[in-house]
What does this fold into?
Amino acid sequence: MTDTTTTTPPPGAPTGGLARPSIIITSQYLRDLSFENPNAPEALTPGNTIPQVKVNVDVKTRALAENRYEVTLNIKGESDVADKKAFIVELSYAGVVGVENASREQVGPMLLIEAPRQLFPFARQIIADAVRNGGYPPLLIQPIDFVELFRRQVEAAQRARTQGAGDAAVPPAGPTA
It folds into this structure.
């Protein structure tokens, strides 16, 4: 009979002594909020016309310090009823994000996919409340596929580089300075 102890790391534990990449949102805040109701009270009168709603979402990043970034969700919602603007809502919602144990190639997706995914529910609630407080039913923005949004940004950056437009778009490897 022998006493042997084998140490097996638990499932999902990092191997080889390397820690997994992670992000930590240290703060989040409302940077800017605007609600315009240009045709009130007429636009508030219920009618048979179904409102047309358009929502645009953009994600921006900016380096604050080493491994510390600001990630900003910019959301704009517009509603038209019978060719008249019912409302315009614009929101910039940001968070300060720390990135740990990540390679340069991992930082971009972490900041442009995972951080916005965590900030989005809070921004969505602010938009819904602002529109409701403007006299309309809450604008409940559907979940956003930040992976697809990131892919489009990478493709746009690659097209801009091949067309000689410089580095105007977000680089695929990381945040803007």
